[in-house]
Design brief:
Distance between the termini: 78 Å
Radius of gyration: 21 Å
Strand content: over 45%
Structural class: alpha+beta
Helix content: 10-25%
């Protein structure tokens, strides 16, 4: 009888401890658990990544493009408030068409040359990167001014989730759903002002089909993006590889490539 009472007291104290958490403490705990689920120290030491598969683009729910895609990403030393990564999105079997993002700008690469992307598209890319949950886990957790606020638990597509608002020192926010069982992020959303209509677009990304891509590092093989409830992009990866020692030539403009006028 005494043993039963002792167990009841222990469980009651444990439950009280959870309920005594502030929303900020619970939010940080959920995010820390997600980092461990993603691979912990192995995830934090991911230097680069190569995702290869099929990419689809949509407009008003209609398919507008599909291609073989290969996305090369390399991470740089963290710099608070800046995007510390380089990315090359290559399309087609020969990868002759590509889009390049680095710390100096962004370009569309074709056989004609390199055409700088509009400033708005570059800004959208950088804003999206800074709000991406994987980039936050890898590069931004220790950044000054980051806050993690728990909205509590809920059900999303029949999955029990913990919901956390993550906000940086510039009030840039993203809401992330973490699966309560796997601890992995399965959905994120944020609002961004539409420069044409002066209202806000809701940007949602859904992550699924996680696999171990090496050393215990987990990565989603299906990533879907929606805007205002309509699907805009989806990639189904066939392979994802990490720490491939990607070289600078992938992320810089060739010296002999013709530079074209900027897109309008």
């Amino acid at each position: 009888m005494k043993q039963c009472l002792r167990l009841i007291v222990i469980f009651s104290l444990a439950a009280w401890g959870l309920f005594a958490e502030t929303p900020d403490e619970r939010g940080k705990r959920v995010v820390d658990a997600a980092l461990q689920a993603m691979g912990g120290d192995a995830f934090l030491h991911m230097q680069d990544r190569v995702e290869a598969g099929r990419a689809y683009s949509f407009f008003r729910q209609e398919l507008t493009g599909l291609s073989l895609a290969k996305i090369y990403t390399r991470y740089l030393a963290p710099s608070p408030g800046d995007v510390s990564q380089r990315e090359r999105q290559a399309f087609g079997k020969g990868e002759y068409d590509a889009v390049l993002f680095n710390e100096n700008g962004a370009w569309e690469l074709t056989f004609r040359g390199a055409r700088p992307l509009p400033d708005e598209r570059l800004q959208t890319y950088r804003d999206s990167a800074l709000r991406n949950i994987f980039y936050i886990l890898l590069e931004r957790l220790k950044e000054p001014g980051m806050s993690f606020y728990s909205q509590g638990s809920d059900l999303w597509l029949n999955q029990p989730v913990d919901i956390v608002d993550i906000t940086d020192s510039d009030n840039r926010a993203v809401t992330v759903y973490f699966n309560q069982t796997t601890k992995l992020p399965i959905r994120q959303s944020f609002k961004r002002r539409n420069p044409e209509f002066k209202d806000f677009d809701e940007e949602v990304t859904v992550f699924s089909k996680y696999r171990d891509v090496g050393g215990g590092v987990m990565w989603p093989f299906d990533i879907r993006r929606d805007r205002n409830g309509e699907k805009t992009y989806e990639i189904f990866s066939d392979t994802v590889e990490i720490n491939k020692d990607l070289t600078d030539n992938l992320f810089t403009l060739p010296v002999n490539l013709k530079l074209l006028p900027k897109q309008k």
